[in-house]
Design goal:
Strand order of the largest sheet: 1-2-3-7-6-5-4
Strand content: 15-25%
Radius of gyration: 61 Å
CATH topology of the domain at 169-334: Protein Transport Mog1p, Chain A
Distance between the termini: 133 Å
Largest sheet: 7 strands, antiparallel
Number of helices: 4
Oligomer: single chain
């Protein structure tokens, strides 16, 4: 019996690419020692590797040849690459005994991809959130713009505290007051009454007295032709100014003379008196009292003749009568209901 060992590698057998192996020394243990007294090599060493037990050694895949650096001085990146069998297993490459240590696959390669995915996800979340915020802001702005459309500067309805209706002008002045003002028993002429306007005229024509008392109460509505906001109060204020201007400076060819205008304090919102003297064959005096209270105008006038057998009469007497009637009308207007 002879001792068997690993057969020597054949000269024509290439083995693994890029590695050189030296035959192992025959071991003298185990089944290979068949004869303790025989130490010589057997002639069976010339047999092919597969003919003896343990003669075939599993081959490792060939090592990837290193790449030449594309740029002079660039690091050899293939030193840190690994074969495909270590791609995802997390194991390190095993080097040959005595050979240079070859680092296995760096976990940074998969971690870098995961980091890129995380960054992409964060960017997606951030930009998506920003887009949602912008859309919400734009939608909110559009909603607010539509919900709170700018109001028109013009007023088209009655406002709080204004009057829709006025009292009956023929019921404001009592009979006793009328007889004292007109110096006789008056007659009613030209009565007119609507919800927003009322007019009543009284006359006394008996020598030596000629008197005419006229009372007009009117509630002005909102109007776009009035300066300002066009509210009912603005419209009444505008009418007050127009009437004052017409008394102070009548239009050319008008039959009435210019009036002497005097302001009245502590009566309504605005008040004035206007005195006209007509001299056309006879002398006739007429005194107006104009009062504005919110959107209501009160016009009271008393006229008397002082010639042709009538008289005497003074503008002071006529003015006192007109002012008394205007105060009574103002009190009646205050008692009317207003817009809530």
């Amino acid at each position: 019996m002879t001792e068997q060992g690993y057969p020597p590698r054949q000269p024509g057998y290439p083995g693994r690419q890029g590695r050189s192996r030296t035959p192992h020394q025959p071991r003298k243990t185990g089944w290979q020692v068949l004869d303790a007294f025989d130490d010589s090599a057997d002639s069976e060493s010339d047999l092919p590797p597969w003919a003896v037990p343990g003669g075939i050694e599993p081959l490792r895949p060939a090592r990837r040849p290193p790449r030449a650096a594309a740029v002079l001085g660039a690091p050899d990146l293939d030193r840190y690459s690994e074969p495909d069998e270590f791609g995802d297993s997390g194991e390190h490459a095993v080097t040959e005994p005595g050979g240079p240590l070859r680092p296995g696959r760096r976990p940074g390669r998969s971690r870098a991809a995961a980091a890129r995915r995380r960054r992409s996800k964060r960017r997606l979340v951030n930009w998506g959130g920003a887009a949602l915020v912008i859309v919400a802001l734009v939608a909110g702005g559009l909603w607010l713009t539509r919900a709170r459309a700018p109001k028109s500067q013009f007023v088209t309805t009655f406002q709080k505290g204004e009057f829709r209706s006025v009292p009956d002008a023929c019921k404001i002045v009592g009979s006793t007051q009328l007889q004292a003002l007109l110096k006789g028993t008056p007659k009613i002429v030209q009565p007119y009454k609507s919800s927003a306007q009322s007019q009543c005229t009284y006359t006394v024509d008996a020598k030596p007295t000629f008197r005419v008392l006229s009372l007009l109460v009117q509630a002005y509505p909102a109007s776009l032709t009035a300066p300002g906001s066009g509210s009912a109060t603005a419209n009444a204020r505008y009418a007050f100014a127009v009437q004052r201007s017409q008394w102070a400076k009548p239009s050319k060819g008008a039959p009435q003379p210019p009036a002497t205008i005097t302001g009245i304090r502590r009566l309504g919102s605005q008040a004035l008196s206007a005195v006209q003297v007509f001299r056309a064959g006879s002398v006739t005096d007429r005194v107006f009292v104009l009062v504005r209270y919110r959107n209501v105008l009160i016009t009271a006038s008393v006229m008397g003749e002082a010639s042709g057998g009538f008289g005497p009469v003074t503008t002071a007497e006529l003015g006192a009568g007109a002012l008394s009637v205007a105060r009574s009308a103002f009190a009646a207007v205050q008692a009317e209901p207003t817009v809530g």
